[in-house]
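Preliminary data (for renewal application), S-adenosylmethionine complex.
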Amino acid sequence: MVRRSSQARPAMNFTLRPSKTFLFDLVEHKLSRRGGAIGLDAAAENLKNRKWFKTHSYYGLDIDLNSLRRGIERASNNTSIYGILADLASIDSIQEGSVDVIVSTNTLYHLSEDQRLRAVSHLSRIVSPDGLLLMDLPIQLVSPSIDEVLRNNFLTIERLYFRNFISRFYEGIFERDGDLGSHPIAGTKPFRLLAWLVSRLEYLTSQRPQWNKQVLFICTDKKNQVKLPFDLSTYPMIDGRIYNLLPRIGGDQTSFSISARG
Ligand SMILES: C[S@@+](CC[C@H](N)C(=O)[O-])C[C@H]1O[C@@H](n2cnc3c(N)ncnc32)[C@H](O)[C@@H]1O
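Predicted structure:
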């Protein structure tokens, strides 16, 4: 089944965190008119954000096979949705310039500094010349080397800052060990609505790095015009829908002992 570009609707996500709601709304909005052949969600967990993508095919990449399996199971009727089991820092096998839309949200901060730089280098390498790369990071993790990789690869790099002091104050009220999910009130409908209202204030401060903790990079206009085909057909598949780009472990393609964290 081919996925078609649908008409853009205003994005409305209702997460527990105003900062996440802002990020998700922004990404969904940026993708709403972005077609193309191949979309890559890096890292996709259980493919929960696949609805953002308007590309003909959606590939959810993650290092955690169980999460990918859950996502693929839920999307079993949609044959334009695939999983890729891979380590973001080692995706040498994905061809240069072969992916039209790449999104990486809430992931790169899990990786070590070295892995993060390698992941950003790969994502910059595999995005197509007229493609789009969206990725977020805590501002304090944006090293000069990451900046340099982006500058070397893209002519246009827009930065939008978020997680301002108002969102942080709101999130701080409910957070227990960095988690809001376990709070009995934060997840109720009125508080999700309140979180959404607080998230609107992020738009007022998104040009001010000094008031924020996170940055969303919006990278376009690739300098290198090489565009190779996206082809994973030589890699083994798991459950018929998940390409396995990880090295074999003990010859058993379906058992992996890899941590989900970088
Ligand atoms: C917090 S989730 C983010 C999911 C989704 N992108 C979002 O914004 O909600 C982070 C995901 O990164 C995956 N991950 C961590 N390190 C990875 C790596 N080196 N390569 C690929 N995926 C990785 C984890 O398995 C997890 O599913």
